[in-house]
Design brief:
Layout lengths: L1 E7 L4 E7 L6 H8 L1 H4 L9 E4 L2 E3 L12 E5 L6 H12 L1
């Protein structure tokens, strides 16, 4: 089956399609995709993942389906609530 693995930085984005056997987990797909060769800062065992925008709590046991897109999430630089407060203070 075919799945996609996606990662984005502000300066570069990549979506890799990978053929994997039925029963492949999200973590296995990420490792098989070779995305780490494109983005060496990624640690597949520690990075947060999701499938089509829904967070996957246990990527090592989340089984994928044909056409799924595994998304790798960068850590937040600032808390969204704090960012909103900062923007509000600038406008005032």
């Amino acid at each position: 089956m075919r799945v996609e693995v996606a990662y984005a930085r502000p300066d570069k984005q990549q979506i890799l399609e990978v053929a994997v056997p039925e029963g492949t987990t999200a973590l296995e797909a990420v490792k098989a995709s070779g995305i780490v060769d494109v983005f060496p800062e990624i640690n597949p065992d520690e990075i947060d993942m999701g499938v089509f925008g829904k967070v996957v709590k246990k990527p090592a046991s989340h089984t994928l389906h044909e056409g799924d897109r595994v998304e790798l999430y960068r850590p937040l630089i600032i808390d969204p609530k704090q960012a909103r407060l900062n923007r509000a203070k600038k406008k005032a």
